[in-house]
Amino acid sequence: MRAVHPLHEWNLQPEQAIALQKELASRVIREDRLPSQIQHIAGVDLAINENNGLARAAAVLLSYPSLELEEQHVYEEPVRMEYIPGLLSFRELPCVLGALNLLRQEPDLIMVDGQGIAHPRRLGIASHLGLWLDLPTIGCAKSVLRGHYNEQELGATAGSWVPLLDHGEIIGAAVRTREHVKPMIISIGHRISLETSIRYALSCCRGYRLPEPTRLADRLSKNNAYREPASRPKEGQDTANGAVQDSLWQ
DNA sequence: GCGACAG
DNA sequence: ATCTTGTCGC
C-alpha cells in the first residue's frame, strides 16, 4: 500500500495518549466520503502470543460485493504496551499498520475489530486508523465499550438494529448480523456515515456473526500463531492420515 | 466511593 | 486478548 506520513509518535504515556485522542477526534469525518463504487474491502485484526510476547496482525483484502479473498498478510512485532481500556489503538495500531502495508491493492474501505467513535473520547481504533491512512473505516466490535442500547427493541432477526446511545447522543448501533446471536456494535470509523456503516457491515455478513473481512482477519491472525503441540498424534496411535498431520507440525 | 471497562 | 467442556437452541 502507498506510504503515509506519520501523524504522531506511538510510544506515549497514557496521559499523553488521552490528550492526543481528544485532539484527533475533532478531525474524524462522520459523513460519507468514500467511493460510490466500493470494489475492495480490507479487514484487520490482531492476536497476541503469550509464549513469545509477539503481536500478530492480519490484513485481508476482499472483493466487493462478491467477498472473494484476494490478499492475506500477517505482520509480527513485540507487544508494545499493556491493554488499557480506551487506549487500545496505541497497543495494536502500529502492528496493524505493518500488516496493511503489505497489501498490493489499496482498499476502498477498511473494517476494524473494535470501536470507531463509540468511545469515551470518540476515537476508537477504527477512527484512529482511518485518520492515519485517510481512508474510510468502520468499527465492528463484539461488545460495548461506551454507551447503551435497548435490548428489548432490538429484533431477533438478522438485519435489525437499534442505536447505541451515550447520554442521548447516537454514537453507533447494535446490529444483529445473525439471528438470535449477540449483536455486533457498529460505529463510524472515518469518512462514512452510521447508516452506510451498518449497510456495509450487513452486506459483508455470510452466515456468521462477524462480517467476512473481520472474521477472516481474525482467523488469520490466530491460525499461524504458535501452539503447544499438546495433542500431537504419536506414532502408532494416530489416525489414518497421521503422516499428513505430522507434516503440518514441522 | 463504586461500577464499567473494545481487545 | 486468552483459557476452556459442555451445552442450549435454531
Describe this structure in words.
This protein has 250 residues and is of the alpha+beta class. It has a domain at 18-141 and 189-225: 2-Layer Sandwich (archaeoglobus fulgidus dsm 4304 fold), CATH 3.30.2170. Helices cover 25% and strands 24% of the residues. The chain has helices spanning 14-25, 88-100, 125-133, 194-203, 212-223, 242-248, and strands at 40-49, 54-63, 69-78, 109-112, 137-141, 161-166, 169-175, 184-190. An eight-stranded mixed sheet has the order 3-2-1-4-5-8-7-6, with helices on both faces. Strand 2 (54-63) and strand 3 form a beta hairpin. The longest helix is centred in the middle third of the chain and has 13 residues, at 88-100. The radius of gyration is 19 Å and the shape is globular. Residues 225-250 have low confidence and may be disordered. The protein binds two DNA strands through strand 1 and helix 2.
Count of helix runs: 6
Approximately how much helix is present in the residues?
25-40%
CATH fold descriptor of the domain at 18-141 and 189-225: archaeoglobus fulgidus dsm 4304 fold
* Integer average pLDDT: 90
> CATH class of the domain at 18-141 and 189-225, please?
Alpha Beta
Q: Using the alpha-carbon principal axes, give the shape.
A: globular
Measured distance between first and last alpha carbons: 32 Å
**Rg calc:** 19 Å
Structural class: alpha+beta
CATH architecture of the domain at 18-141 and 189-225: 2-Layer Sandwich
Q: From N to C, what is the helix and strand string?
A: HEEEHEHEEEEHHH
Strand content: 15-25%
Quick one: how many beta strands?
Answer: 8
